[in-house]
Amino acid sequence: MQSKEVIKMQNNILNKKNCLITGATGSLGVCLAKSFSKYGCNLFLTSRTREKLENLKKQLGSINQDIKISYETGNLENIEDIYKVIKKAKKEMNSIDILINNAGVVQFDSLIDSTIEDFDYMFSINVRATLIFCKELCKDMIKKRWGRIINIGSVGSYNGWADTAIYCASKHAILGFSRSLYEELKNYNVRVFCVSPGTLVSEMGKLVTEKFKLRQDTFIEPDEMAEYIAFSISFNKEMISKEIRLDRIQESIEH
Q: Which residues are catalytic?
């Protein structure tokens, strides 16, 4: 049975668009896939684990039976895997209209204790993979003169904290890259968004909790963020929020 939540808006410009989501089986990735399925997007999903992708595909099929859902596994630390995903996506979907670079990793260490391998690991997934997906998939967007690219940044794209130097550097890179790509593509009706949230309720959020002793009830719910992203890119006229910073209003605590 098809979910009653499927969006039937008359002017739903996302309906039947082809959307690729990296990091699709993480907390935010799952919510993004569900949100975009409600908007009627065909979905191409990628993450490391085939079983999780297959389970997600089944969940999405129960939300909207009218969309096409395909997937490919890949470790985005490896360039060969990135191109394998792109090749499969083009074969299955012909072209991608919406790209969501959601995959990301974090490690916490002082700069002194960090290694070049740590740098390569975080930058290969957080930055290099994003750059390659954008470079390869924006070509068809330019030809069609329609596209949406959403790069997931972080509150760390604007700030810095102890023991996060490499991670924050990678997220600053995503912000700068997104700003430049926005300028390159805007005249082709290809819109680039950098969405920078505070900490999410997620597996990565648990690492933040353990490291900085923060309360998870002050973190952003990934389903709300996913809905916000889908809604934000659904406008097709002149208005655009190219940089979106998201945080949660924290309740005051009486001591």
A: 167
Enter the pTM of the model.
0.89
Whole-angstrom distance, CA of residue 196 vs CA of residue 115: 26
Q: Looking at the DSSP assignment, which residues form a beta bridge with residue 43?
A: 19, 69
- With 0-12 / 13-18 / 19 or more C-beta atoms within 10 angstroms meaning exposed / middle / buried, residue 24 is buried
Q: Which two tokens stand for residue 54?
A: 């297959």
Determine the Cα–Cα distance for residues 82 and 110; give it in Å rounded to an integer: 30
Choose the weakest-confidence range: 131-135, 158-162, 180-184, 231-235. 158-162
- Helix 222-232 with 27-38: angle, nearest 10 deg: 40
Class level of CATH domain 18-246: alpha beta
Calculate Rg over the CA atoms of the chain. Answer: 18
The answer to whether residue 248 scores a pLDDT higher than 80 is no
Residue-range domain boundaries for the chain: 18-246
- The candidate with the shortest Cα–Cα distance to 107, out of 64, 167, 67, is 167
Does 246 score more than 90 pLDDT? no
Torsion-angle region of 143 (φ positive above 0: left; ψ -120 to 50: alpha; else: beta): alpha
pLDDT single digits (tens) 197-209: 877 664 554 455 5
